[in-house]
Amino acid sequence: MNYISTRGQTAPKTFSEVLLMGLAPDGGLMLPEHYPQVNGIMLSNWRNLSYKNLAFEIVSLFAPDIPAEDLHDIVSRTYTADTFGTAEITPVRTLKDGIKIQALSNGPTLAFKDMAMQFLGNMFEYVLNKEGKQLNILGATSGDTGSAAEYALRGKKGINVFMLSPEGKMSDFQRAQMFSLQDDNIVNIAVQGMFDDCQDIVKAVQNDADFKQRYHIGTVNSINWGRIVAQVVYYFAGYFRATDNNHQRVSFCVPSGNFGNICAGHIAKQMGLPIDRLIVATNENDVLDQFFRSGEYRPRTTAQTFVTSSPSMDISKASNFERFIFDLSGRNADTVRRLWQQVGNGTGFNLSEKLPEIRETYGFYSGKSTHTDRLDTIRAVYQSDGELIDPHTADGIKVARALRREGETIICLETALAAKFNNTITEAVGKVAIPRPDKLRGLEQLPQKVQIVPNDVETVKIIIRNKLDYN
Ligand SMILES: *Cc1c(COP(=O)(O)O)cnc(C)c1O
């Protein structure tokens, strides 16, 4: 199986090649030439597999160039009860009102990004080692993505991580999580500026082609194909836990930002997993909800993006959305190029004539949640079920409750734990004890390692050079 670009102007690549890629050279996103198909026999055989064995079966369909034995080893080291808290890895529970929640956030950073990042860290190390290469990840984070990347790549051979964050803008918990890592290959850089300044520095370094090549600079953002493929696995796992046989159908409701998580659900459905609806839940930054209700995609600028109490969904453009539009257009790269030209010049596009197909063939629906909805939902679930859910998961539950049909099984994906968002939880339910996993007790008291720098590209380049030239 080879991988092609949504813009159609990149030579086909193997799985190992796309794994280390960001955007395709033509500006598109990489996708498999076709989606592998599953049938009833495969589903029956997979129903009772352990998570790691399920991951092996699914990933191997997409990665024929990775020898089976090696892939087995990688998934076995990745999906352990030690890293993800339970032997089931992503257990499914049911709220009093019948809505199901699939736990994806019991990894090291308490957010679903660990599910894919932990896999990617091991895959990166494997591929780099095999090819005798090194990779230096340069990233900017406002909290979640950076910590998931650091926990996935800490101590990995052939990889260094340089992570920029805005000084003083993250929560105490997020700061402690990242800066307490003492691994030699993790370099935390706090920039005296905002998150956008950090992103600008990353772009400036990326645009210096000589520097980028000389120091093997790469990224791990949400468009990485390895992350998407790892996420496909938990849609299968959730389906098996929520059903007794393969004639039943379920719907998934997914708190969404960059469309990476639900894009994996779309792929699982295209592979033949009996998914009924894929429900996109957004916060006040509702470009996706607008699209799935009206067919109009009107991305916004950073300045038009709201800062909300579900911050990991605060996006103005959904970077993985192009993958879905590629499929929706009948995999027509010319159409995608034309539409993204309109995205580039700020007008966006209107596909309202496709709405029936988007709903009936692809199963996509959407809804939106606001700060008030989020607090109300956190409070309601606390009262009815005695458990605290995080603000992003609350957005999903709010939308699932609003859209649920008679007899429909909806699985809401739990994208983070309440322990990461004390302030919003307290605002919703008052001062209560917010459970925190044992491993993270006393986190804020650990010694921290970080360099504070002015908002300046050269200073960051010097840090990278010093680290790589003299190591
Ligand atoms: C990243 C993130 C999301 C959004 O996921 P996408 O793949 O960008 O749609 C939702 N919730 C939390 C907690 C996240 O960290």
Question: What do you see in this structure?
Answer:
Helix 8 (172-179) links the parallel strand 6 (159-166) and strand 7 (186-192). The chain has helices at residues 15-19, 40-46, 51-62, 68-78, 81-84, 113-131, 144-153, 172-179, 195-207, 209-214, 225-242, 260-271, 287-294, 321-328, 333-344, 355-360, 371-385, 391-403, 422-429, 457-469, and strands at 3-5, 30-32, 92-94, 100-103, 135-140, 159-166, 186-192, 217-218, 250-255, 275-282, 296-297, 349-350, 364-368, 410-414, 451-454. It is globular. It is built from 20 helices and 15 strands. The chain has one domain (1-123, 223-441): Rossmann fold. It is α/β, with parallel strands linked by helices. The strands form four sheets. Strands 3-4-14-9-10-13 form a six-stranded mixed sheet, with helices on both faces. A five-stranded parallel sheet has the order 8-5-6-7-15, with helices on both faces. The site of pyridoxal-5'-phosphate has 16 residues, from helix 12. Pyridoxal-5'-phosphate is lined by residues 111, 113, 144, 222, 255-261, 312-313, 392, 415-416.
